[in-house]
Design brief:
Blueprint (H helix, E strand, L loop, with lengths): L3 H6 L3 E9 L7 E10 L2 E10 L5 E4 L18 E7 L5 E8 L2 E6 L7 E9 L3
Antiparallel strand pairs: 1-8, 2-3, 4-7, 5-8, 6-7
């Protein structure tokens, strides 16, 4: 049986320090109804719109680890761990995918939040 440390060391790992997270978790969608008259023709429109900002998309190939190495463009079954550096938090939104992930900061933070990222390739 592998210990947790042995399991982590068996896979490729990257440490990305001081990553700025500016994306925010998207707020709720709203339904809307519009009634209009154009050239004496009445119309009704119904739709849904998202309010607020959205999460920040991140590609692995755009990241640089603490040694100055660029990460590969694809990582097999990645897991991204976020290490907080301030009173404000950040979190991964949804699931990681082979080419990247989405991240968002705490919505009430006054600006970008700096975090460290630990990216582990879990493999098959």
């Amino acid at each position: 049986m592998l210990s947790a440390l042995s399991h982590i060391k068996a896979h490729r790992v990257w440490f990305v320090p001081k990553f700025n997270v500016w994306g925010t978790p998207g707020s709720e969608d709203i339904d809307y109804l519009v009634v209009e008259t154009v050239d004496s023709v009445n119309g009704v429109l119904f739709g849904r719109a998202a309010l607020g900002d959205d999460s920040q998309p991140v590609k692995f190939e755009d990241l640089t680890d603490f040694r100055g190495n660029t990460l590969p463009s694809t990582i097999l079954n990645p897991r991204v761990l976020v290490r907080q550096k301030s009173d404000y938090t950040a979190h991964i939104v949804g699931d990681e995918f082979p080419t990247g992930f989405h991240i968002a900061r705490q919505a009430d933070a006054t600006g970008p939040v700096t975090v460290d990222l630990l990216i582990v390739e879990m493999g098959d």
